[in-house]
Amino acid sequence: PEDTTSHLLSLGFLSRHTRVVQASNDYLLFSVIPDAREFWNVDPDSTLVKDPEFELIKRNKSEWTSDSRLTTSNGLVAPRRQGIVRQKIRVTAGADYLMVANVACQDLWSRTILSLRWYGEGGAELSQNSQTVFPGEELNDQFLWARAPAGATSAGVEFGGQSRCEFSRVDVFEQPRTE
Fold it and tell me: Is the pTM of this model over 0.85?
């Protein structure tokens, strides 16, 4: 209830009571869901990524890869500055996807990038959706919403770069269709 009195609705309110229906030029259009389930109206167990909590990274058995060395401590993964961590997932062209990262950075002004890089048949890159986020010093959820372009068959789920940040979990969900 107190969330509704803020000028900019909190991420907690948005994740529990709304759904992104359209995005354009970094603007999002939300619809309010009166009978919403928890967490963006998706089942939290329906994540499309494997090893969302990075449990297998230490044993080099994870689907996550990186172009730099990863630091792991207390269940957190920290890519080196300018390093990107990625994993490929299967997608459906035209479907809506929500990437959610639980992340904290070294200070209030540090930032990181969340990206979905779209690929078509044969692995040809089609396009990319990215969002620069400023998570702050405490672990919290940051998100990227995107629609898979025509012809997309897979996506590269990517995070990192820019600043020293630590991630505890990264998920991608296919959003349920609403008509």
Answer: no
